[in-house]
Structure formats: structure tokens, C-alpha cells
Specification:
It is globular and about 45 Å long. It is built from 8 helices and 12 strands. 31% of the residues lie in helices and 17% in strands. It starts with a strand and ends with a strand.
């Protein structure tokens, strides 16, 4: 049995199928970890969601910011954006079943020395603390009041943000941090071009999660980056780059170019 971690799919289902063939994925034995953002930007968000829902028990996927955007649009808490490719999902006959499955995905999963999250962690979070926080926020998202949290998540305001909202944004949106540990939400470029005084979340001097290997995506401009405390796997497939898989047991890396 192998466990393969795969970066952000973004509805690039044809590319995903080619990558699964490349790694020889056996749905009866192997497991998949996906870093979130199953949907949007690519042409086949509905196919990707239906495939993930069907695979279910062999698949571990965390929620990403584009997944949350889809849930917000479906709930009437956000508008579709010009570059969205979500219309097919929103009009699907099984949309309610798919949304119910999606909103129940975790925000963080930990297994041994590996910790799966879409974007990253705040520096003060230990692995154990991050697990507790992510579980509490995920429970809120899947509750009756979850739509309110999703609506606040899509809003641009920062003043008066709740702890839950700050945690949700960190888990699904963090790239760089200011010296005070706050997210730099407006920056998405490569780390060497970060605003003065800011640094990647994984290199913050007070980071309390260095004991685990964080498996994440979200930051396409960062690209594939592998080191003992970080497997960053978003290699920009939706932007014409590659889709990346890493075997957690032996560190093998496989990639395929965008085939959409």
C-alpha cells in the first residue's frame, strides 16, 4: 500500500487521471491525500467532485479556499467571479449531495510525522494545538451556523474577526506573515518578492510545528518545495504548470503537465 499526496487539482480532472495512471494508483489498496482546492479554474470541477465523492474512503482531502468559495456561492453568501468555472457544479442535479459531502471535509489531518492542510499554520500553533483548532472550526462549518462563517470568510473586512474566522483564513489562505504573525492576504507572488519585513509562514522564527512535515498546497508561485518540515505541492497545474504527487512512504515524486 502507498499513500500519495497530490497538490491542488482545481478541476483539472484529465490531468489528475493521467497522474493517477503515472503513479499506478490502485484504488483497492493505495490511499490519496489531496491538499484541497478540488474545484475552480480548471474545466472539470463537477467531474472532480463526483470522482472524489465516489472514492471517499480511500481519499483524504482537506478544504481549500476555492472549495469554500464554492460553498459560499452555493449558499448565496458570495457571487461568482469572472474567472470562476463553477457553473456546472452549481447546476448539477446532485449538487446538494456534493455540497453536503464537501462541507464535511476536514481542515487538517495528521498521521504520524505528516500533517495535511491546504495552506499552512500560524507560528504559535503546535501540531496538537492546530489539530484541536482545525477540528473545532470544521465542526462549526458543518453545523447549522456554518453558512454564517463561510459568509464572513468571503467578506474582505478584518476588524473584529473572530478566532474561528482567523483560524479558517490561516488554514486555507496563509502564504506570508507580517512580523506580528498576521496574514499578508493581498500577496500571492514568489516568496523572494514578499513585502518588506514579511516572510513565508513555514520560515517564521517562532514556528512551533517544525517537528512535523506539513503537506500543503495553495501557493502556486512557491512551486514544488520539499524539505524535512515541508512538502509544498502546488506546482501551478491550473495555471499551465504541472500536477505533482509525492509518495509519503519513500519520497518519490511524479509530475504530469497540464493536459486540459
Amino acid at each position: 500500500m502507498a499513500t500519495w499526496a497530490i497538490g491542488d487539482v482545481h478541476g483539472c480532472f484529465r490531468t489528475l487521471r493521467k497522474l493517477l495512471k503515472r503513479i499506478g494508483f490502485d484504488g483497492a489498496a493505495d490511499r490519496l491525500w489531496l491538499t484541497g482546492d478540488l474545484v475552480n479554474r480548471g474545466p472539470s470541477s463537477l467531474e472532480t467532485l463526483e470522482w472524489a465523492r465516489e472514492l471517499d474512503s480511500r481519499l483524504t482531502v482537506v478544504l481549500g479556499n476555492h472549495d469554500l468559495h464554492l460553498l459560499a456561492v452555493a449558499a448565496g453568501a458570495a457571487e461568482e467571479r469572472a474567472r470562476d468555472t463553477l457553473r456546472e457544479v452549481l447546476r448539477a442535479k446532485r449538487r446538494d449531495d456534493l455540497f453536503d459531502w464537501l462541507v464535511r471535509r476536514p481542515l487538517l489531518v495528521r498521521q504520524g510525522r505528516f500533517l495535511l492542510v491546504h495552506a499552512g499554520l500560524l507560528p504559535e500553533w503546535t501540531p496538537e494545538g492546530a489539530e484541536r483548532i482545525a477540528r473545532a472550526v470544521a465542526d462549526r462549518l458543518s453545523s447549522r451556523s456554518g453558512a454564517k462563517l463561510v459568509a464572513a470568510y468571503r467578506a474582505r473586512r478584518d476588524a473584529g474577526d473572530s478566532f474561528e474566522l482567523r483560524a479558517l483564513r490561516a488554514l486555507t489562505m496563509v502564504r506570508t506573515l507580517r512580523p506580528d504573525g498576521e496574514l499578508v492576504r493581498e500577496f500571492s507572488g514568489p516568496p523572494e518578492e514578499a513585502p518588506e519585513g514579511c516572510r513565508p509562514w513555514y520560515d517564521h522564527p517562532d514556528r512551533a510545528s517544525r517537528e512535523v512535515t506539513v503537506v500543503c498546497g495553495h501557493w502556486a508561485a512557491l512551486g514544488l518545495r520539499l524539505r524535512p518540515d515541508l512538502f509544498a505541492l502546488d506546482s501551478g497545474c491550473a495555471w499551465g504548470g504541472q500536477l505533482t504527487a509525492v509518495c509519503l512512504e519513500d519520497g518519490r515524486v511524479e509530475q504530469v503537465p497540464n493536459s486540459e
